[in-house]
């Protein structure tokens, strides 16, 4: 992934909204063999992508909802990562949201700070355009995914 395109993807992530605008996200960019090999040990779904973004948030700084006691970190990372994915598309870069990995173990292996909680990984690169999964382009009709409550 060209650095200019990667910078635009990361900038889109930086501009994403977060709860109370606390901006607790931190994105770790993996591109070297050392870190991609570590990742491959724990995540079977990198698909040989040359760049992987690790989306984490600072557990010490995230907003805690009074009603539930839950952290906003996971939803913040979903918003931040979605911005990255949309900008990747705009830049002509393929992306894939990965979530099949042990986050605590991976954070330790990558040497992330103790307060960093990994939520997801994202492959970036130029994928196989000749044979996507059979259901890749299928979408349910709107009537199956939206209900107007009256």
Task: Give keywords.
150 residues; alpha+beta; 4-stranded antiparallel beta sheet; 4 strands; 35% helix; globular
Please give a quick description of this structure.
With 150 residues, the protein is of the alpha+beta class.
Describe the fold and architecture.
- The protein has 150 residues and is α+β, with helices and mostly antiparallel strands.
- The chain is 35% helix and 19% strand.
- It has five helices and four strands; from the N terminus they run H-E-H-E-H-E-H-E-H.
- The protein has helices at 3-14, 33-42, 73-90, 103-110, 142-145, and strands at residues 25-30, 51-58, 94-98, 116-125.
- It has a four-stranded antiparallel sheet, with helices on both faces.
- Helix 1 packs antiparallel against helix 3 and helix 2 packs antiparallel against helix 4.
- The chain is globular.
- The model has no long low-confidence stretch (mean pLDDT 94).
What topology emerges from the helices and strands here?
Blueprint: H1 3-14, E1 25-30, H2 33-42, E2 51-58, H3 73-90, E3 94-98, H4 103-110, E4 116-125, H5 142-145
Helix pairs in contact: 1-3, 2-4
Can you count the beta strands? 4
Helix content: 25-40%
- Give the termini separation: 47 Å
Secondary-structure element pattern, one letter each: HEHEHEHEH
The major β-sheet equals: 4 strands, antiparallel
Low-confidence stretches: none
Radius of gyration (CA) equals: 17 Å
Helix run count = 5
Strands in their spatial order, largest beta sheet: 1-2-4-3
Question: What is the residue-mean pLDDT, rounded to a whole number?
Answer: 94
């Amino acid at each position: 992934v060209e650095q200019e395109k990667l910078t635009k993807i990361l900038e889109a992530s930086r501009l994403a909204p977060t709860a109370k605008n606390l901006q607790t996200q931190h994105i770790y960019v993996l591109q070297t063999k050392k870190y991609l090999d570590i990742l491959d040990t724990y995540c079977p779904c990198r698909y040989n992508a040359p760049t992987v973004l690790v989306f984490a948030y600072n557990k010490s700084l995230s907003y805690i909802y009074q009603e539930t006691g839950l952290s906003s970190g996971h939803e913040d990372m979903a918003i931040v990562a979605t911005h990255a994915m949309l900008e990747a598309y705009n830049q002509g870069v393929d992306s894939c949201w990965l979530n099949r990995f042990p986050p605590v173990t991976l954070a330790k292996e990558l040497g992330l700070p103790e307060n960093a909680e990994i939520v997801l990984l994202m492959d970036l690169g130029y994928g196989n355009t000749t044979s996507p999964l059979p259901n890749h382009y299928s979408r349910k009709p709107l009537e199956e995914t939206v209900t107007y409550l009256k």
